[in-house]
Amino acid sequence: MRILIVLAVLTAASGSTIVTNRPEVDSAGASVHPNSVPETVKESVLYEQYPSQEAVEDVMTNEELNPIHYPAQRAAKVVLHYLNSRCGSPYKLFELQTVYRVNAEDVADSGRKYRMEISVKEMFGNTVEKCSAEVLFPRGEQQGSPKVQTSCEELLKINTKSQEEALYQQYKTRHSLLSAQNLPDSYGHIEPDMTPFWCLGALASSFVMLAESTEETLYNMAQVTNITQLATEDDRLKFDYHILLHDVVSQEIIPWNLLITWSPPEGVKVLQMKQLPPHQKLL
Q1: Which single residue of 66, 102, 167, 208 could bond 44 by disulfide (Cβ 3.0 to 4.6 Å)?
Q2: Among candidates 205, 183, 200, which has minimal Cα distance to 80?
Q3: Percentage, residues of the chain above pLDDT 70
Q4: What pLDDT is recorded for position 4?
Q5: Could you read off the pLDDT of 98-151 as tens digits, one per residue?
Q6: What would the DSSP string read from start to end of 96-118?
Q7: Residues pairing with 102 in the sheet
Q8: 0.90 exceeded by the pTM?
Q9: How far apart are the first and last CA of the chain?
Q10: What distance in Å separates the CA atoms of residue 135 and residue 94, rounded to the nearest whole number?
Q11: Is residue 122 within 8 Å of residue 158, measured between CB atoms?
C-alpha cells in the first residue's frame, strides 16, 4: 500500500530532506522533549492549504483577525512548527486542522503578539485537540525567531515508542545504509517503509521554518529530495537530508541541507543547517 502525499504547490521540484530538533518547551507549553538543535542554530518549523493572496488583510494595532486570512494562518502555522519540532516523531506528526479565533496586539518594546484558538490533528492516529496558543514575533532590537507558548495535553500523551524502537533496531543493525530520493515522488507517492523518514524530514524542517518564520512568511515543507544514512560509532542514527521549503507568500522554493541524528531516547538532534542556492519561484 502506498501513501499519497498531496503536493499543493510543487510543479517539478527534486527531493529535499527534513530534520527536526526538539529543544525544551516553555513553561506554559508542552513537556520537555529530547530533540534539539545546536546553540548556534535557530529552531524552526510543516504544511497545509491557504487562501489566495487576495485574502491578505492588514494587521492593525490591536484587533480580531479573520481566521482564514494570511496574518492569522501564518501565526497558527508557527504553532504547528513548534509542536512538531518538540513533540513529533517518525510516527507522530501534527497538522493544522482549524483556526477558530486569532487576536493580534502590539506589545511595547517586544513585538507583535498573536493569541489564538486552533485545533491540531495527529495525522496517523487522527487524534484532534483544540488548543490555545500565543505567538510573539519580535521586532526592533529584539528581532529573532518567534516565541511560542501552547498547551495540547492530549496530543502529547500519544505514545509511539514501540514503533520508534522497531525502526531504530532495523536501521541500526542492517548491513547497507539507507539512501532515498524524492519523497514524495512526482506523482505524490511515498512508499510505506519510507514514510517514517519523510516524517523525520518534516520534523527537522519544522526547526528551520520556526527559525525563519516572520509576520511576512508562510512556510511548508514541499519535498525531501535526498536522504543518506551515515555511519556512526555511537548509538544514534545519523542522516544527511536535502529538503525543499515553500514560502507561500513569495512563492519561492528554498533548498536546505540538514545534518541530523535520531534515536528513540534522544529524539532528533539537528547538528547543522545550511541554506542552499535558491530554486525556481513558483508562478
Answers
A1: 208
A2: 205
A3: 77
A4: 42
A5: 999 999 999 988 899 999 999 999 999 989 999 999 999 998 776 789 999 998
A6: EEEEEEEEEEEETTTEEEEEEEE
A7: 65, 116
A8: no
A9: 33
A10: 17
A11: yes
Nearest alpha carbon to residue 124 among 148, 160, 149, 97: 160
In the prediction, which pLDDT does 130 show? 97
Taking the C-alpha atoms of residue 217 and residue 70, their distance in angstroms, rounded to an integer, is 9
pLDDT at 135: 97
- Distance, CA of 126 to CA of 79 (rounded, Å): 18
DSSP annotation of 251: T
Q: Which residue has the cell 494570511?
A: 70
Place of cell 507583535: 112
Q: Name residue 199's amino acid.
A: C
Please state, in angstroms and rounded to a whole number, the distance separating the CA atoms of residues 28 and 151. 7
Burial 164-199 (b: 16+ CB within 10 A, else e): beebbeebeeeeeebebbbbbeeeeebeeebbbbbb
- The alpha helices in 6-69, defined as continuous H runs, are none
Please provide the DSSP assignment of 196-208 as one string: HHHHHHHHHHHHH
71 cis-preceded (ω within 30 degrees of 0): no
Cα–Cα distance, 270 to 209 (Å, whole number): 13
pLDDT digits (tens, 9 = 90+) for 59-78: 457 899 999 999 999 999 99
Q: Please name the amino acid found at residue 64.
A: E
- In angstroms, the CA 112 to CA 260 distance is 32
